[in-house]
Amino acid sequence: MKIMITGCRGQLGTELQNQLRDERCELGPLPERLRNTTVIPVDIDELDITDREATIAYIRRHQPDTVINCAAFTNVNGCETNRDAAYRVNALGPRNLALACDKVNARLIHVSTDYVFSGAPNGGIPLDECALPAPVSAYGATKLLGEQYVRDFCRRHFIVRTAWLYGYNGKNFVKTMVNLAKTHDTITVVNDQLGNPTNAVDLAYHLLKLAVSHDYGTYHCTCNGVCSWYDFAAEIIRLSGLPCTVKPCTSAEYAAAHPESANRPAWSALDNRALRCSVGDEMRDWKDAIQAFFNNWNGE
Ligand SMILES: NC(=O)c1ccc[n+]([C@@H]2O[C@H](COP(=O)([O-])OP(=O)(O)OC[C@H]3O[C@@H](n4cnc5c(N)ncnc54)[C@H](OP(=O)(O)O)[C@@H]3O)[C@@H](O)[C@H]2O)c1
Prior knowledge:
Helix content: 40-55%
Order of helices and strands: EHEEEHEHHEHEEHEEEHEEHEHHH
Strand content: 15-25%
Number of strands: 14
Structural class: alpha/beta
Bound molecules: NADP nicotinamide-adenine-dinucleotide phosphate
CATH superfamily: NAD(P)-binding Rossmann-like Domain
Strand order of the largest sheet: 4-1-5-6-7-12
C-alpha cells in the first residue's frame, strides 16, 4: 500500500509514521496488508493543504491509495482570534484533499474532533455517531465544515472524531501539566468539562485498521471512560510523581481569569459505536492509556 500522511510532524502524524515503520505498536502488530507500506509523509513546508491546485497536483503525482489527514489548526483559542486561518486549514484543507483524492480514487481518512458537539449534557450518555453536531467555537465550527466537505467531495472517505489527544511528539495537555508542576506548587483545572483523554497510539492503530477496511463512514475513536480535565490533570500529576496539588475550578471561574479562552463543550464524551460495529474497539481505558504513556515517554 501507499499511504500519504499530511501534517506528518504533528502528534498523530508522527505516531502513524512510527507504527508504519515498526509494523506494530503497544497494542499489537498492524494488519498484514500494511507490511512494507510506502509512506509519503508531508507537512506544510512541502504541501500546504490550503492550496487547492498544489494539493491536487501533489496527489496526482504521488498516486497514494490512502491519504490520512492529520493537518489542522489545533490551537482552539488561536482559531477564535484568527478565524480566516482556521477556516482555511480546517475547512478548505480537507475540501482540497477530498477533491484531490476523489480524482485518483484514493481513500481519505480525515481526523476530526469532539468539539463539533455543543456540550449539552445528553443525560450523561456518551455521544455516538448519530448525535447532531452544534459547535460552540471557531475550531469546532471549522472542523465541522471540513467534515461536510469531505463527505461532499470524496466518495471513499472515513471521518474519525477523536478528543483530548496526547502523543509522545508535540505539544499537549499532559506535557503542559507536567511542565507547570515543575514550577508551581498548585495548579487549578476545570472540573465541569467532561470527555475522553485519548492516547495517539490507540488512535493511530485504529486509523490503520480502518485504512485496510472498506467500512467507509463516520467514526468516534477515543479511549474508553469519561473524566473531567481536573480528573485527567490529577492522574497526570500522580503518575509524574511531582509534588504539586491540583485544585478544581468551574469553567466560569476559569473564563473570568482567562477572558481570551474559547468556549468549550461541557459534555463531549464520545461512544465508539461505529468502531465496535466494524473493525472492533480495542481502545484502552483512559487510565491504562495514560499509565502506558508515562511508562514509555522519554520526558521531552
Ligand atoms: N490535539 C487534540 O487535542 C485534538 C483533539 C481532537 C481532535 N484533534 C484532531 O486530530 C488531528 C491531529 O491533531 P494533532 O494534535 O496531531 O495536531 P498537531 O500536533 O497540531 O499537528 C498538526 C500538523 O499540521 C500541520 N499543519 C498546519 N497547517 C497546515 C497546512 N496548511 N498544511 C499542511 N500542514 C499543516 C502543523 O504544522 P505546524 O505545526 O507548522 O503548524 C502540524 O505539523 C487534527 O485533525 C485535530 O483537529 C486533535
